[in-house]
Amino acid sequence: MSEVPHLVAVLGRGVVSPDDPVVTADDLGLTRGDGCFDSARVVTDPSGTAQIVDLDDHLDRLAASAGALDIAIPPHDAWRSLVSEAVAAWSTPGEAVLKLMLTRGREWRPAGPTALLTITHRAPSPTPTGPPRTITAVTLTRGHPSDAFTDAPWLLGGVKTLSYVVNAAATREAKRRGADDVIFTTTDGFALDGPTSGLLLARGRTLLSTPTGGTGILESLTVAAIMDAARADGFETRFELIPVEDLYAADALWLVSSGRGPVLITTLDARPLRTDTALATAIARYAGF
Amino acid sequence: MSEVPHLVAVLGRGVVSPDDPVVTADDLGLTRGDGCFDSARVVTDPSGTAQIVDLDDHLDRLAASAGALDIAIPPHDAWRSLVSEAVAAWSTPGEAVLKLMLTRGREWRPAGPTALLTITHRAPSPTPTGPPRTITAVTLTRGHPSDAFTDAPWLLGGVKTLSYVVNAAATREAKRRGADDVIFTTTDGFALDGPTSGLLLARGRTLLSTPTGGTGILESLTVAAIMDAARADGFETRFELIPVEDLYAADALWLVSSGRGPVLITTLDARPLRTDTALATAIARYAGF
Q1: Which terminus of chain A has fewer CB atoms gathered within 10 Å of its CB, N or C?
Q2: What is the spatial distance between Cα B139 and Cα B135, in angstroms, rounded to a whole number?
C-alpha cells in the first residue's frame, strides 16, 4: 500500500509519528467532540518548500470558534511556531491540507486545551488551464428552520466544532444515492451549505451565498475571497437566503472549501445543472486555484 | 489534589494508564466526533467487587448506535472480555460510571474501529432512605421541530454519538443561568430530553416521557426500567409529545440517566415545581437506586 503523505504535530511535543497516539481516553475532544478545528490550504513547490495559504485568517477563525466554545486557545504565536515546525518537516510537492485542532482537553486530569495539527497530501499541483473540477450532489435536510440559531448560542451556529458526525453521515448518504456531495437544506425550504464546504451560486453577473447567523452556517473564507475578487471584476455579490428551487435554475453552482477550492456541481438530485466553463475558470482563479 | 478514581482499557491493549494517549491524530472519533458511546452504572460493594448494571442492554444499544453509523462493532464477547478485565482492576466501593466508546477508527491508516472504555468513580453508595436527589433546570431550544428526524437517518436521531458538543454547550448555558441542567425543547413547543438524560413526568398516577423517532431523542434504558416497574405498581405509562407548558404543571418532573438514576427537578426556568417526596422515593426504587 502506497500511503498518502501525512504529518502530525502536537503543541508541547512537536512533530510526532502519525502512528503515535496523542490523545488520552478522557480528552473531551474525543469523548464529546468538544473542540474546534480549521483547515487551510498548503501549497508545496517542486523544490519542497511549503506555504500555508492565509494562515492568519484560519487562526482568527479558529480563535472565534474557540471563543464560542469558551475554550482558552493558545496564542497565535504558539500555533505559528508549531506550524513552522510542521512545514519544515513537510516537503511533498503539490496540494495538501493543514488541519488545526483544539479540544477542551482532559476531563479527569485537567491540563488545559489539547492543540494539534495534521498536514495531509491531497493532489499534485493544479493545472490552471485544465477543465474545472466537477462533482454531483444531492440536497438533504439539516432538520432545522433557517432561523434556528438566532438567539441560541448554545447551538454553536457558525462554529467549526469537532462534532461533525452528521456531516460525515450525510456524505455517506450522498454516496448511497450515487452522488459525491451534499447541499444541506432547511425545513422551510432554503439552501444552507455542504458538510465541509460553503455554497456559491451564479445568476447572471450576480454571485450569491447563504448568510451566517440564524442559519447556523459557517463563514466560508474561500467564498469571501472569491466574492472580493469577483466584485473587483464587475460582479455583484450578495448573502441572502436561497430557495432550494433556485439551485436547479442557477447559471452555475459550486461547493467551495479552502482545501479543494471551488468545485462545480454538474447534477443536483440527479437533475443536470447549467455549467459555464469560462465562468468556472474565472471563479477558480478568484479563489487562487 | 485528591483524584477521582478512574480506569482506562483499550480493546487490543487491555488496561492502560489513564495518562497514556490512546487515540491517534487521524482517528475519526477525534477529528469528526464520528463514533458512538454508551454509559452504564457500576456498583462496587465494600469488599471491592464491582458489578455492571444491565451491561447487555448497554451493549445492545451501543450496537444499535454503531449500526446507524455503519461502523462494524466488535462482537459483544470482545466487549465483555474487556469489561471483565477492567472490572477485575476496579475496586473503589460505591457508584461509578462505565463508558463504552467506539470510533470509526483511523482515517490515514485504516485499521478498523477503535474500541475503548473508562470507569470513573462518582459517589459513595446511595442511602435508600435518604431524601431524593434534586436539581434545578432551564429549558433551551434544540433548534428543530418535533418531527425533524422523520425519514432523515443521516441526522442520526436516537444515536448516542461522540458529537456531543451542543449537549456540553447547553449545560454550560444552564450554569450561566444559575441552573444545574437542561430540558431541550423543539421549535414547535414540545419537550425533548436533557443533554445526558431522559425526561420523566408524573401527572397523577400517569408517567409520561417523550417518544423517540421524529424527535431524534435517544431511548432511555432507565426511563424504560422505571416505567416497567411502575406499571407493575399500578401506574399508567405513555410516550407522547409533552407541551413545554405541561412541564411547569407536572406533579413531579425528573431527568433520568443510567449513571445517576432519576433526579427530581425542583425549579424549571426559575419557577418552582411541585415535588412529591414519596413518589420520588418510589421512582428511585423502580430505577434500582
Answers
A1: N
A2: 13
CB contact under 8 A, B27 and A30: yes
In a domain, residue B129? The reply is: no
Instruction: Please say if the pLDDT value at position B38 is more than 90.
Output: yes
Of A128 and B105, the one with more pLDDT: B105
* Cross-chain CB nearest to B154 (options A8, A27, A169): A169
CB contact under 8 A, A31 and B99: yes
Q: Please give the distance of CA A217 from its chain centroid, rounded to a whole number.
A: 11
Residue whose grid cell is 462533482: A135
CATH number for B79: 3.30.470.10
Question: Chain B closest CA to A279's CA: distance in Å?
Answer: 33
pLDDT digits (tens, 9 = 90+) for A75-91: 999 999 999 999 999 99
Q: In this structure, are A201 and A226 located in the same domain?
A: yes
- In this structure, the answer to whether residues A159 and A89 fall within a common structural domain is no
Q: Do B29 and A25 touch (CB under 8 A)?
A: no
Chain A residues 243-272 within an 8 A CB cutoff of chain B:
none
Q: Reply yes or no on whether the pLDDT at B165 is more than 60.
A: yes
Contact assessment for residue A149 and residue A110, using Cβ atoms and an 8 Å cutoff = no
Contact A150/B at CB under 8 A? no
Name the domain boundary from B100, B123, B146: B123
> Considering only residues 79 to 118 of chain A, which have any Cβ-Cβ distance to chain B shorter than 8 Å?
99, 101, 103-104, 108-109, 116, 118
| Domain co-membership, B224 together with B262 | yes
For chain B, the domain total comes to 2
Mean pLDDT for the stretch of residues A149-172: 98
Cell numbers linked to A284: 477558480
**Structure-block grid coordinates of residue A137:** 450532489
pLDDT of residue A148: 98
- Check whether residue B83 and residue B16 sit in a common domain: yes
Q: What pLDDT, on the 0 to 100 scale, is given for residue B130?
A: 75
Q: Cα distance from A232 to chain B (closest Cα, Å)? A: 37
Shared domain check, B222 and B160:
yes
ipTM above 0.85, yes or no: yes
Last residue of a domain, one of A67, A89, A123: A123
- The pLDDT value recorded for residue A2 is 63
* Residue A104 CB partners (closer than 8 Å, separation 6+): A28, A29, A34, A35, A69, A71, A113, A114, B168
Residues B46 and B153 in one domain: no
On whether residue A129 sits in a domain, the answer given is: no
Query: Is A164 among the domain residues?
Result: yes
Residue A262: CATH number of its domain: 3.20.10.10
Read off the pLDDT of residues A38-56 as tens digits, 9 standing for 90 and up.
999 999 999 999 999 999 9
CB pair distance less than 8 Å for A24 and B8: yes
Considering the domain architecture, whether residues A149 and A234 belong to the same structural domain is answered as yes
Yes or no: say if B168 and A34 are a contact pair by the CB < 8 Å rule: yes
Share of chain B above pLDDT 90, in %: 95
A66 and A203 co-located in one domain: no
Range of the domain at B253: 134-286
A174-177 contacts, C-beta under 8 A, 24 or more apart: A174/A137, A174/A138, A174/A140, A177/A138
Considering only CB atoms, which chain B residues are within 8 Å of A31? 37, 99, 101, 162, 164
Does the residue A101 lie in any domain? yes
What is the per-residue DSSP string for B165-189?
HHHHHHHHHHHHTT-SEEEEE-TTS
| Pairs of residues, one from chain A and one from chain B, whose beta carbons lie less than 8 Å apart | 207
